Amino acid sequence: MKLWTPELLRLVSIALIAFSRSKHLKNQHLRVSQEPFSVCYAMAEHEYPVSESRRQFLFVGTVGMSALVRGPAMAASQARVQKYPGLEYLEPIYELQLSVSALQSSAGDANKWHLLKQRLEKFFGGGLFSERNYYAGVGVQYMNQMEYDKNELKEYVRLDKEARFNAMEDTLNSLEAIKNELQKDSPDAAFVRSNAEAASAAISRWFANIPDADRRAVADLYIAVRKADQNRDGRLSDSELALLDETDQAVWKRRIKLVGG
Question: Of the four listed, 96, 105, 158, 190, which is most buried by Cβ atoms within 10 Å?
Answer without folding.
Answer: 96
